[in-house]
Amino acid sequence: MSVVSFARTRPRLFWSLIAALVVALYLSSLGVYAASDDSDAGWTEVTPDADEVLVIVSLIEVRPSTSRVDVEVSVAPGASFLDSGGADLAREMTVLVSPSIARTKLVLPQGTSVTTFDTQVLLDGQAGRWPFDRFVVDPLVVTAYTGSGSDVQTHPTRVLVDGEAEGWTVGDDVLSADGQDVQEVRVEVHRSGGILVYSALLLAMMVILAALAAFVSIQTARRRRVVHTDMLGWMAAMVFAVIPMRNILPGAPPIGAWVDITVTVWVIVTLVVSLALYVYCWWRDTAGETVSGGGRQLRGGVGDPGAETGPPAERQRHRDHHGECPRHVGRREELVPQRPAGSVPAADAELPVRGEDEQHETGSDGGAEDDAAAPVGGHGEDHQQRRDPDPVV
């Protein structure tokens, strides 16, 4: 392979690798999200023993800001607690779940069917560590007993924790053996893999916005690009776009979370500094311009804006560009005062013009001098015509 063909192949290979990487990241994110959203995993049919009470605690919604979780408690007593029909309770039963705050116990009167009740359970964790925040209920105590007063009798209970909280992965560890009168369970919840992928993508887009603004402002400050005032609106819009992106982060992390200190605040700072740097570049590159009448002028007099500002190399580039641009040429013609047709310019009227007598007196020597002074190519006559005043009509 020759050097030329290899040089042509390198850009194509580079962009092919970039496209393959993007596709791989996309498929990986879909796989992680699908694996974390597998709601059918872990479902088994459970039947309580005749002398035990089965209590199913289903997590509905986790509230990190208040350190609480909404749960639904379902009670399934064994056959010894039911009447002959097997549908209603043969005696009154009370189920106690702690640590709950909305309703501490459920009383099931005799002759009623088994029901469920909703409550809130306290969590222990730190919401400021989003998206790696973890919350635990240690322990979740469930007690079932019958009777009242001195006739209270506790019964063996079994607790099942159903992990159906959207966006969370639920794990539980039984701290006491099955069949004991009081069962304790340690429940832990943390963010699912799909939520982590979604959060990482949003944070990456915020960082990319800041990087783009910094790149544009730095290149402009180094005079590698010219200033366009439209870019100021673009940068200001990105500053206000960060807050909505932060607010749609899954789980709504509290204000002041570590993600704000490590990402959000620095993204906003970078955008604001980039905007300020771009404003400085605008002020620097247009320092020699003033507003006069209906258009821009140089402070030293009428002229093309920006033609005498900047370093010598930039001024030369400006002249080369504007010399070929019809728009700027037309602007110069509008700024130059037009004299009426047939009038005599003041500068040309003051130039002395030799008469015929003076021309004859010079003789051949004067004619030779004029011929020598005239440029090659017949421009001497044109030069003489410009010096002669225009005839007055």
Explain the overall architecture.
The structure is a single chain. This protein has 393 residues and is α+β, with helices and mostly antiparallel strands. Among the domains are: 53-191, Sandwich (Immunoglobulin-like); 196-286, no CATH class. 41% of the residues lie in helices and 22% in strands. The protein is built from nine helices and 13 strands. Strands 3, 4, 6, 7, 8, 10 and 11 form a seven-stranded antiparallel β-sheet that branches. Strand 7 and strand 8 form a beta hairpin. The chain is elongated and about 105 Å long. The relative contact order is 0.08. This is Integral membrane protein. Keywords: Membrane, Signal, Transmembrane, Transmembrane helix. The chain crosses the membrane at residues 195-219, 231-249, 255-280. Pfam families: DUF4436 (PF14494). Residues 314-336, 351-363, 379-393 have a biased composition (Basic and acidic residues).
Summarize the structure.
This protein is an alpha+beta fold and 393 residues long.
Radius of gyration: 43 Å
Query: What name does the CATH topology of the domain at 53-191 carry?
Result: Immunoglobulin-like
Strand content: 15-25%
Derived structural class: alpha+beta
CATH class of the domain at 53-191: Mainly Beta
Provide mean pLDDT, rounded.
74
- Could you list the spans in which at least 5 consecutive residues all have pLDDT below 50? 298-309, 324-333, 347-351, 358-364, 366-387
The topology string of helices and strands comes to HEEEEEEEEEEEHHHEEHHHHH
Major sheet: 7 strands, antiparallel
